[in-house]
Amino acid sequence: MILASAGLPEGVDLGATIWILAVIFLVTVALRALPFAALRFMRESNLVAWLGLAMPAGVMTILVVYALAGGMGAPGGAWALGLGLAFTVALHLWKRSASLSILLGTLFYLVLVNWVF
């Protein structure tokens, strides 16, 4: 084989490494595709419909709790948290888009923490 060692440590076989990586790749792809394949059978499910309604609020709640629990020690502390929360709430009340509020609110908070304070 041309790439017999390929920079691998002594005693590590390139063929075995490629096989292991191929199996890992296939398992990862299968695990990521499985929910979408299963969703086809649950389209009419009341649980899936409820999750579609509840998940955006749940994600926003988790982000707020995470920020409040760990953000006080971050640069800007309470100021960055307060401004980020106010921006996210105002944006959500204005646009009524959970995805936009989560994305831009998180981005605004990250900008505050990393570049302003």
TrEMBL record:
Keyword Transmembrane part of the UniProt annotation: yes
Pfam families reported in the protein's UniProt record: AzlD
Superkingdom of this protein's organism: Bacteria
Entry keyword set: Membrane, Transmembrane, Transmembrane helix
Segments crossing the lipid bilayer: 16-35, 47-68, 74-93, 100-116
InterPro entries to which the protein is assigned, alphabetical: Brnchd-chn_aa_trnsp_AzlD
Keyword Manganese tagged: no
Protein name: AzlD domain-containing protein
Organism from which the protein derives: Corynebacterium suicordis DSM 45110
